From TrEMBL:
<dbReference type="InterPro" id="IPR036249">
    <property type="entry name" value="Thioredoxin-like_sf"/>
</dbReference>
<dbReference type="Pfam" id="PF03960">
    <property type="entry name" value="ArsC"/>
</dbReference>
<comment type="similarity">
    <text>Belongs to the ArsC family.</text>
</comment>
<dbReference type="InterPro" id="IPR006660">
    <property type="entry name" value="Arsenate_reductase-like"/>
</dbReference>
<protein>
    <submittedName>
        <fullName>Arsenate reductase</fullName>
    </submittedName>
</protein>
Amino acid sequence: MNKIYYLASCDTCRKIIKSLPENNLVFQDIRQNPITEAELEEMYKLSGSYEALFSKKAQLYKSMDLKNKNLGESDFKKYILEHYTFLSRPIFIIDGKIYIGNSQKNVAEVIKALS
Protein backbone atom coordinates (compact mmCIF):
# COMPACT_ATOMS: atom_id res chain seq x y z
CA MET A 1 0.00 0.00 0.00
CA ASN A 2 1.37 3.39 -1.03
CA LYS A 3 0.77 6.03 1.59
CA ILE A 4 1.39 9.64 2.54
CA TYR A 5 1.57 10.89 6.12
CA TYR A 6 0.89 14.61 6.12
CA LEU A 7 -0.70 17.49 7.98
CA ALA A 8 -3.83 18.89 6.30
CA SER A 9 -3.24 22.31 7.88
CA CYS A 10 0.32 22.53 6.50
CA ASP A 11 0.58 24.81 3.46
CA THR A 12 3.72 23.03 2.26
CA CYS A 13 2.03 19.61 2.45
CA ARG A 14 -1.00 20.93 0.54
CA LYS A 15 1.22 22.45 -2.15
CA ILE A 16 3.15 19.18 -2.57
CA ILE A 17 -0.07 17.13 -2.74
CA LYS A 18 -1.43 19.44 -5.46
CA SER A 19 1.75 18.91 -7.50
CA LEU A 20 1.47 15.10 -7.48
CA PRO A 21 0.41 13.19 -10.57
CA GLU A 22 -2.74 11.08 -10.34
CA ASN A 23 -2.00 8.34 -7.84
CA ASN A 24 -3.32 5.59 -5.59
CA LEU A 25 -1.91 6.97 -2.34
CA VAL A 26 -3.69 6.41 0.95
CA PHE A 27 -3.75 9.78 2.72
CA GLN A 28 -3.32 9.97 6.49
CA ASP A 29 -3.64 13.34 8.20
CA ILE A 30 -1.46 12.81 11.27
CA ARG A 31 -3.41 15.31 13.37
CA GLN A 32 -6.81 13.68 12.74
CA ASN A 33 -5.43 10.14 12.67
CA PRO A 34 -2.19 10.00 14.70
CA ILE A 35 0.43 7.49 13.66
CA THR A 36 0.54 4.25 15.58
CA GLU A 37 3.62 2.62 17.00
CA ALA A 38 3.31 -0.06 14.29
CA GLU A 39 3.27 2.61 11.55
CA LEU A 40 6.28 4.31 13.13
CA GLU A 41 8.08 0.94 13.26
CA GLU A 42 7.44 0.45 9.53
CA MET A 43 8.89 3.91 8.82
CA TYR A 44 11.87 3.12 11.06
CA LYS A 45 12.59 -0.13 9.19
CA LEU A 46 12.57 1.74 5.88
CA SER A 47 14.58 4.77 7.06
CA GLY A 48 16.94 3.07 9.52
CA SER A 49 16.58 5.84 12.10
CA TYR A 50 14.00 7.59 14.27
CA GLU A 51 16.09 10.74 14.04
CA ALA A 52 15.61 10.76 10.24
CA LEU A 53 11.84 10.83 10.87
CA PHE A 54 12.05 13.56 13.51
CA SER A 55 11.39 17.21 12.67
CA LYS A 56 13.84 19.60 14.31
CA LYS A 57 11.85 22.46 12.74
CA ALA A 58 8.87 21.83 15.03
CA GLN A 59 7.97 24.74 17.30
CA LEU A 60 7.72 22.33 20.23
CA TYR A 61 11.33 21.28 19.58
CA LYS A 62 12.40 24.87 20.19
CA SER A 63 9.98 25.64 23.03
CA MET A 64 10.96 22.45 24.91
CA ASP A 65 14.63 23.36 24.38
CA LEU A 66 15.30 19.88 22.97
CA LYS A 67 18.20 21.11 20.84
CA ASN A 68 20.22 21.50 24.04
CA LYS A 69 19.46 17.95 25.18
CA ASN A 70 21.37 14.87 24.14
CA LEU A 71 18.57 12.94 22.43
CA GLY A 72 18.93 9.30 21.46
CA GLU A 73 16.88 7.09 19.15
CA SER A 74 14.48 6.11 21.96
CA ASP A 75 13.88 9.82 22.70
CA PHE A 76 13.10 10.59 19.05
CA LYS A 77 10.65 7.66 18.96
CA LYS A 78 8.98 8.77 22.20
CA TYR A 79 8.51 12.38 21.06
CA ILE A 80 7.16 11.36 17.62
CA LEU A 81 4.56 9.12 19.27
CA GLU A 82 3.68 11.78 21.86
CA HIS A 83 2.93 14.61 19.42
CA TYR A 84 2.32 14.66 15.66
CA THR A 85 4.33 17.85 15.20
CA PHE A 86 7.58 15.94 15.76
CA LEU A 87 7.10 13.78 12.65
CA SER A 88 8.93 15.21 9.67
CA ARG A 89 6.44 15.67 6.88
CA PRO A 90 5.26 14.75 4.46
CA ILE A 91 6.38 11.15 4.55
CA PHE A 92 5.64 8.98 1.54
CA ILE A 93 5.92 5.21 1.41
CA ILE A 94 5.82 4.13 -2.23
CA ASP A 95 6.53 0.59 -3.39
CA GLY A 96 8.43 -0.23 -0.19
CA LYS A 97 10.62 2.89 -0.31
CA ILE A 98 10.38 5.85 2.08
CA TYR A 99 10.63 9.54 1.15
CA ILE A 100 10.93 11.90 4.11
CA GLY A 101 10.39 15.64 4.09
CA ASN A 102 9.67 18.43 1.67
CA SER A 103 12.98 19.14 -0.05
CA GLN A 104 12.71 19.80 -3.80
CA LYS A 105 14.88 16.75 -4.49
CA ASN A 106 12.63 14.53 -2.37
CA VAL A 107 9.43 15.83 -3.97
CA ALA A 108 10.93 15.28 -7.44
CA GLU A 109 11.76 11.66 -6.48
CA VAL A 110 8.20 11.12 -5.21
CA ILE A 111 6.69 12.50 -8.43
CA LYS A 112 8.99 10.24 -10.47
CA ALA A 113 8.04 7.21 -8.32
CA LEU A 114 4.32 7.94 -8.82
CA SER A 115 4.59 8.57 -12.58
